[in-house]
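Shipment paperwork, digital attachment
Item: protein structure file
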Amino acid sequence: MNYFRNITTALIFTTISGFMSSQIRPLDAMLSNYQYPFEVHFMDFKSQDNQLKMAYMDVKPQKSNGKTIMLLHGKNFNGAYWERTAKDLASKGFRVIIPDQIGFGKSSKPHQYQFSFSQLAENTKAVLDELHIDKTIVLGHSMGGMVATRFTLLYPEKVEKLILENPIGLEDYKTFASYQTIDQAYQLELKNTSETYKNYQLKFYYDNKWKEEYQPWLDLIAGWTLHKDYPQVAWDAALTSDMIYNQPVCYEFKNIKTPTLLIIGTRDRTAIGKDRAPKELQSKMGQYQELGKKTQLEIKGSKLVELENVGHLPHIEVYPQFFNALYDFIK
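Attachment content:
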């Protein structure tokens, strides 16, 4: 990775003081020194002239109900944060598939890769094909909701039911925020630290109320910033930010025919590029208490469960309410 060597040394020195105070453990690009809650498998495949590894967990129930559910993670996360959800779903008889998308978690971090939701959906389908799974329930959170939407539109025959948990992409961010080049996004990513990540999560996820159970999901991304591999991770983060901004799915919700559930924390104000939008428009972005209702009208026959005073991460912040809504829809 010669591309990244010029800034690696400086990056280590700028983050070491934060590491000493926080004691967050440095994590390499593939999270090889971080243990996931379930056994991790890897699918080896070639895509866009890259030899890639896509990580996934396959959680099998003791007593199967014959159904499979696939859980798709958000941009600042990986499959590990589905641990509690997966355990409870498996206890109800579901087989649970949890992939890490390319560019995330324990999956490959390619430098030259045209990220698109269609490509991520195709990669995800390849995992199901490798496991000989013909039909699945699909649950997507945050960016995973955009992947889940594209997957459902491309492969409707494979999706039994669709669940979107505080998905981003319920609005077209290009209509609010100015464009940011990938190089500009990359430089901003390089500035991330444990503190900047925590401040962002406090603002959008947890309403400035930090709890101990939130820390593991902060440590996972903050640990990357302390490792020499971080430029590699930051580059893919910039590429996927560009994908989110330039590839809206909101105009196609009307084409979804699959039974769909929206689980929406109404306190959420997450919006890509909000800091680049005119001040008079910033307050209009990420209004989930309105976007949830609007999207329900777009997806014919869909069901909306609103969780009042809940932020971007219902399955972490108010797990019992989240799981009850999920299970009532899929049981």
